[in-house]
Amino acid sequence: MNKIPPFDVSQQYQQIGDRLNKAALEVLASGQYIGGQTVSQFETEFANYIGSHHGVACNSGTDALYLAMRALDIGEGDEVITSPFTFFASAETISMTGAKPVFVDIEAHSFNINMDLIEAAITDRTKAIMPVHLFGRSVDMTRLMAIAQKHHLYVIEDCAQATGATFNGQKVGNIGDVGCFSFYPTKNLGGCGDGGMMTTKSAEVAEKLKILREHGSPKRYYHEYIGMNSRLDSLQAALLQVKLPYLDKWNAQRREISDRYTALLKDANIPNLVTPHHCTGSVWNQYTVCIGAGKRDYVQTQLREQNIITMIYYPLPLHLQSVYKHLGYKKCDFLVTEDICDRVLSLPMFPELAAEQQERVVSTLKDILK
Ligand SMILES: *Cc1c(COP(=O)(O)O)cnc(C)c1O
């Protein structure tokens, strides 16, 4: 049996390799390897796509989150509320600023932060909320913005897995104060290396983001802040410029794939398997099912034996990571998150995944769990 990988980023190169080669060679010949027009054009095109006024490119999604908080003056003594069920960078960047991550449990059906629990976690020190649009699905931004406004908190959206996703028709990354995106190769808009972007409606915040990404220096060799070196390479900008016009098509393909998985799994009627809730506006970075408690690792191993490779995002919640021992969280603090971490399994998902491959994934799952 052929291997079905969890993602396959080389397929995009097979589709549009000629255009990517041409764009890359142009940058190589130009000698403009850092900054320049390619980067600023891509920033404008990306901001237009999101519907935001300003796009500021940087070196990764991680840097985007860190720079966004620095631009909003978040640091020592502050608290930032986020989800314990996300990639480590969401909380890591809060800690990098000197602020403290404060976790709030998730909802089982959306995998996103539970709105009903946020207000109880707000203290005098809370400065911001970082919603994470996990697996491509938007947080309920109407409710989140209402809570933030009521308590005068900033909102930094972690859109790393949700480029192109919408909430009530509005693109994520254009709702809070700053939207932070990743161009890591497996993200919905993936580059050929690392890359990131911040979007904001505020000219003032955009200006500060630009200063911070280049050594805190508004003018070369004059430094106003401790910043960093976090630029998007011209080469990556040129490649992403080629890919951006395809993003809506690729996201539509991901939607079709998720609908097909859900229909196939419903027909298969597999005991102890829960399919992800349908959600208009999701861009399905992952299609994640929940398996009956205690069976998940066995199912993953059995699938691997049939040459179907799945992923576990994420096996250990952030509040139980060893690095956060000092924060004082313990097991059973967030029951939904902890249960979900034991049960999630992300099935193969990429725009080019074929219907027959999906059928094989589902029939193999049925054989294992019947
Ligand atoms: C990928 C990811 C990041 C970090 O992006 P990088 O470009 O890999 O630094 C942050 N948050 C979430 C939720 C992610 O999935």
Structure notes:
By secondary structure, this protein is α/β, with parallel strands linked by helices. It has 2 domains: 10-246, Type I PLP-dependent aspartate aminotransferase-like (Major domain) (Aspartate Aminotransferase, domain 2), CATH 3.40.640; 247-369, Aspartate Aminotransferase, domain 1 (Alpha-Beta Complex), CATH 3.90.1150.10. The chain is built from 12 helices and 12 strands. It has helices at 10-30, 37-50, 61-71, 89-96, 115-118, 141-150, 203-213, 234-243, 247-268, 296-305, 335-343, 355-369; strands at 54-58, 79-82, 100-103, 126-130, 154-158, 166-167, 170-171, 178-182, 196-200, 273-274, 287-291, 344-347. A 7-stranded mixed sheet has the order 1-9-8-5-4-2-3, sandwiched between helices. A 3-stranded antiparallel sheet has the order 10-11-12. Strand 2 (79-82), helix 4 (89-96) and strand 3 (100-103) form a beta-alpha-beta unit. Helix 2 (37-50) runs parallel beside helix 8 (234-243). It is globular, with a radius of gyration of 21 Å. The two termini are 21 Å apart. 47% of the residues are buried. The mean pLDDT is 97. The site of pyridoxal-5'-phosphate has 15 residues, from helix 3 and helix 4. Pyridoxal-5'-phosphate (PLP) binds next to helix 3 and helix 4.
